[in-house]
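Hi V.,

You were right to ask for the full record rather than a summary. Here it is.
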Amino acid sequence: MSHPNPEVTFKYVVAPDYNPVYINGAHGGVSPRGEIMVNFYIERLPLPDSITHEINLNGTIGNETASNPPDLKTTLVRHVDTGIVLTVENARIFHAWLGERIREAEAIERAKPASPSPTPPAMGDGMTH
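Predicted structure:
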């Protein structure tokens, strides 16, 4: 079968350490060279280095009495794992491509039947320290 226009086939080579990551934020700007820099992060609560609990008279773990670092409850972490640098032209192309994926995802979401609201978990369910 002949094609009216020349064709090219792209083959994808995936690095052995390829590891997609979840992100929920980005920080960046324009570099001194005019390139667009984007650093992706996941924003989360910090993990403590240590937590101290009192021991109840019956030997069970009681209330938390200290944590390290001390500012644990007033801090958020933005863990930056990866970033990209784009030329302005490539940023425009990526912007258009991403816009198409957003429109596709929105169309899929609109086509889903309405689902009932989730039932809250029963008391006592869930994780504890």
